[in-house]
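FAQ: What does the model actually see?

It sees only this:
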Amino acid sequence: MSTENPRARDRTAPALDLLPAGDAPAPERADAARNRRRILDAAARIVAEEGPDAVTMNQVAHASGIGVGTVYRRFGDVSQLLWALLDERERAFQEAYMSGPPPLGPGAPAAERLDAFLDALVDRVAAQRALLLAAHSAAPRARYHSGAYRVMHTHMALLIGQLRPGSDRTLLAHLALAPFSPDVMHHLAVEQELSAERLKAGVRELLALRA
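And it is asked to produce this:
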């Protein structure tokens, strides 16, 4: 069983900078940052009151008091807006697995951290299922370009590299995260009515990265 290398752990810290837009965006002007915040807050209110399927660019513009043209220029379309909202909600989860207490955070063996991360990810997807599904349905491939996914992939690749030195950890991390696609998890949890405990056990058995 591998233990975590502190140097390897340090390499995960900069990944937080990927959110929400990735690739080192230029600093926002104060007015642009305020507009972004108002747009995301308006979208969050609509999701809370009416559900994610009710989000439209026109409705968000009206609720935020910002012109619809500005909303489109800032986020492009509804799917990008929903993924940006998800990225906002991802920060607490990131902090937990990157700098929180073990076993989810640093300080536990890599195998224990992996189990804790997979369990937490099942719970995370369940908690955000409706929003994740709406964003995924609008743009299925956008998930893989979101800041949240990139940070999770970096973390998963690090753990896999510690458990399987010399493996193709970048590829394996993508494959390990594949079962957490919103449509797959929705099918299993809602349509198949599988419990969170069964999903967690199944994901662990499928990956078997500790073996």
